[in-house]
Design a protein that fits this description.
By secondary structure, the chain is an alpha+beta fold. The protein contains six helices and 13 strands. It has a domain of 197 residues. The strands form two sheets. Strands 2, 4, 5, 8, 9, 10 and 12 form a seven-stranded antiparallel beta sheet that branches. A six-stranded antiparallel beta sheet has the order 1-13-3-11-7-6. The longest helix is centred in the middle third of the chain and has 13 residues. It is globular and about 65 Å long. It starts with 8 loop residues before the first helix and ends in a 23-residue tail after the last strand. 40% of the residues are buried. The mean pLDDT is 96.
């Protein structure tokens, strides 16, 4: 059914937008304090995430997590959990609402309801120079969900097992001694580390393009909570052509963890759970 364009169509389109969640009242992270703490932090862990697979690592509260490109351009899908409670996990939708479609230095990864508190703060981003390109693309997005076998089956009838959703499921199952069915319930929408994405201007579709990441680039976080980080090295490689592919050139990613001496965190307090009383009007 076709509808006529109303005579005031342009006037309706010209109405100025309003930011849904003005974030100027969000508590600002103390990046200077984090930098001082980082200078005293001691490396305590490292894991190499194989291409087209996933791995996990624990990060102590007040510590640092760095994700690095090591051998070639590669994007990763990151899930974050409270180390001691898998029900508190990264909430990409609220992070997107508070900060925008992509995150960088000084912005945070927020946890799910009912806690809704900072899980990790980005303290260094070697791709911060990229900004937003002429296509509307940028890096480290919180808009894509993760490549998964269900969508592949829906669109192409495939049975592909090394997409990020399945990789994360296997890695979480291994990390916590869960069955695949149990682990899959906890896998959630991701931070697409190093991935360059946006929305097309004409159709509004989610797009990806070749990541600008190169060996030596990294994204580093301050752990506001004790964390379990689970990272998949996407089977799309740099996502310049397709994801969920055995043809794309893929490379490992590295996760490194540093622990901070307690004294170096003077002036910092762990984030409390959200203060809403949960009465929901009753």
């Amino acid at each position: 059914m076709t509808y006529e364009t109303p005579p005031d169509a342009e006037a309706r389109r010209a109405i100025a937008p309003v930011i849904c969640y003005p974030n100027d009242t969000l508590p600002a992270p103390d990046l200077a304090l984090f930098a001082r703490a980082r200078a005293e932090a001691v490396k305590c862990g490292e894991v190499l995430v194989p291409p087209r697979d996933a791995a996990s690592i624990e990060v102590p509260q007040g510590g640092f997590l760095r994700i690095s490109s090591v051998d070639g351009p590669q994007v990763g899908d990151l899930n974050l959990f409270h180390r001691d409670d898998l029900s508190e996990r990264f909430y990409s939708g609220k992070t997107r609402a508070l900060h925008g479609t992509h995150i960088t230095t000084g912005e945070r990864m927020w946890s799910s309801f009912p806690t809704l508190r900072p899980m990790a703060t980005v303290v260094e981003d070697t791709l911060g120079w990229y900004g937003i390109d002429g296509f509307g693309g940028s890096v480290h997005d919180v808009i894509g969900t993760r490549c998964d076998p269900y969508t592949g089956n829906l669109l192409a009838g495939t049975q592909y097992h090394h997409c990020c959703h399945s990789n994360l499921t296997r890695a979480l199952a291994d990390a916590r001694g869960l069955t695949l069915v149990e682990a899959e319930r906890h896998v959630h929408d991701v931070l697409n580390v190093f991935m360059c994405t946006g929305f097309t201007r004409d159709t509004g579709q989610y797009f990806m393009k070749a990541s600008p990441v190169r060996p030596g680039d990294y994204l580093e976080f301050f752990a506001e909570l004790p964390l379990l980080a689970v990272l998949s090295a996407c089977p799309g490689g740099d996502c310049s052509a397709e994801h969920s592919s055995d043809a794309a050139a893929c490379y490992p990613l590295k996760m490194e963890v540093w622990q901070t001496p307690y004294a170096a965190l003077e002036g910092w307090s762990p984030p409390a759970a959200n203060g809403y009383d949960r009465s929901h009007g009753r």
